Amino acid sequence: MRVELPIKRISNYKNIVSDEVDELINLAKELKGLRVVHVNATSYGGGVAELLYTLVPLMRDLGLDAYWEVLEAPNEFFNVTKKLHNAFQGAYVDITDSELELFEKVNKENAEKLNLDADIVIIHDPQPYFIPLFKEGKFIWRCHIDTSSPNKIIWEKITKKAAKKYSKALFHLTEYVQEPFKDIAVEFPPSIDPLSDKNKQLPEETIKEIILKYNIDITRPIITVVARFDPWKDLKSAIDVYRILKEKVDLQLLIVSAMAKDDPEGWILFEEILRYAGTDPDIHFLTDLKGVGHLEVNVFQTISTVGLHTATKEGFGLVISEMLWKGNPVVARPTGGVKVQILDGFNGFLRNDVKELADALYDIINDSSLKEEFGRNAKKLVKEKFLTTAHLKRYLKVIKEVIY
């Protein structure tokens, strides 16, 4: 299924990163008219969809014939791919022969019915990974997962079967690269869009309306966690951190999330986390089930005192860059891509256990000059490394290498 996309203009980014825009226009000259298709599992929920909603329209504006196709699949397929996702991150899971047959069958069906006649096909994550087995062309695999220590049995069973069909494999960090991709791997961090509804500067009136609608008290400190309901995000620890802090500080915890359509497990965990939180009125669950969209997430991050990220595994964690872009420090566990966004003692703190996380948050909440210093550093780092324009430049360079 092809995704309908908005029009975006690369010229609109001139005020933020002028030199990078000029470089992108020059890079794209040789690629004009090139047909590029991105393929992933869902058009809504999760970081991949958000990235593509910006990157694909900007590729078009630069002159590429770019579009985005989404898999058509039954729920049983996504139960299998969730297992693959967890296995790629190192979990022990049992995947049966019949489940693997379903995975292959759905990939074959999509290879035949999606419009994949393009110069370059970019496959995102495990769900459409087998498509190149059933379709001729030049393929790039874009992995958004922390594969630093995968479940080797399942990793090898899946990746080896189609690895030779790919010209390049893109990973957030070099430490995620495993065989059979070492010879074709590229380090490829993702990005946030500074002009999107989630990241643009909002009028005060909009901020006030949303605060009022969701009954948030901005006179008290606010800790915000933005994360899917996923076991790796360890949201119970976020609640534990809040409870430790609550003994010393009168604060609120915002848990902000979207329910990804390709993640049936998320609904079960959502109910479990709700029960764990109990009836504390200062723990706010703010999801799309309550009408939370990108503007609302923007407001929640903007009004936050400090961000918290308790994931035990994290491919990258763009929600951290989003929070940093609003000039707010973040306290997080030092895992995966978190480590390149938060520099300990520069724009936040990296800590492991719940007590350490709570202590680090307390230090920021109680030292306004430290919070301001971290906030300035936070925005500067994201501007230099993790905006859309830098990401788009990486894509154009890789596409050029594959084509020429």
Automatic annotation (TrEMBL):
Record's keyword terms, sorted: Carbohydrate metabolism, Glucose metabolism, Glycosyltransferase, Transferase
Stretches assigned to the Trehalose synthase N-terminal domain: 38-178
InterPro entries linked: Glyco_trans_1, Trehalose_Metab_GTase, TreT_GT1
Stretches assigned to the Glycosyl transferase family domain: 209-380
GO biological process: glucose metabolic process
GO molecular function annotation: glycosyltransferase activity
Family the UniProt entry places it in: Belongs to the glycosyltransferase group 1 family. Glycosyltransferase 4 subfamily.
Subunit record text: Homodimer.
Protein name: Trehalose synthase (ADP-glucose)
